[in-house]
Amino acid sequence: MRSRAALIMFSAPWLFACAGESPATAGRRWFLAPPMPEALAALSGSDKVGVETRDGLAFMPRSDASGVGLVLYSGGYVDPRAYAPAALALAERGHLVVLPRMPFGLAFSNVDAATFARVAYPTVRRWVVGGHSLGGVVAALHARNHQDTVSGLVLWASYPADDTDLSPSGLRVTSISGTRDGLTTQARLEATDRLLPPSASRVRIEGGNHAQFGWYGEQEGDLAATLERTEQQERTVTATAALLDGLR
Description:
Elements: H1 4-18, H2 23-27, H3 37-42, E1 49-53, E2 56-61, E3 68-73, H4 84-91, E4 96-100, H5 113-120, E5 126-132, H6 134-145, E6 150-156, E7 172-178, H7 186-191, E8 201-205, H8 229-245
C-alpha cells in the first residue's frame, strides 16, 4: 500500500493541473509562500474577533455570531496565514472562519479538514467550504462528498476537478475570479462551468489576478493586476459574505 506521503506526491501534478499551475512550476516550489506583514497583523484579531489556534486558525466573532461557518482551504504551497485578512473581515461580519493547517502545503493532505471543524465548533448551524486555487479543487471534492453537512461552496480562482460534478447538487455556490489571472484562466473556468449547479453565482473581478486572493506576494506565471490588492480583497470578501449572509 502506498504511504500517505507517496499518494500526495503521486496526486500533486494532477491537482495542480486542475488549479491552473503546471507540475513543473509546482515542483520548483516545495516551500510555503510566506504571509506578508498585512497578513501577520490580522492574526491579532480585533475588538470584534478573537483568534484561536486549534490545528489551524479560527477567527471567532466575539458577539452577534451568525451561526454560519466557513472552512477555507489554502492554495498549494501557500501558508494558510496568508488568508488571515479576509478571514478577519468575514468574521467581523459575524461568521466563524477556519483556516486549517495543511500538511506538505497541499490541501489534498487534509481533504476532510471541514469535518474536524464541524466537530470542534458544534454551535455553528450551517457550514460552507471554500478555497483558493488548489484549495478550491479540494473544497469542491469535500462538498460533493458531504452534501448532508455542507450547505455551500465558495471558489476563489478555482473550479471543481473533472470528476467532481456538482451540477445536480443543491449546494449554494459562488465562484469568484480575476480577469488578470494567469493561472486559473477565464477559458478554464468556462470549460468547467458545467460542473457547477445552474444556480451558481459567478463574480468576475476586473483587473484582479491569482495571487491577490491572498497576502503572499507575487506568483510565477500570474499576470500583473490592474487594481490594488486591498480592492481585490474587499470585493472577494463582499462576494463571499453574500453567500454566507444568505445562510443565516
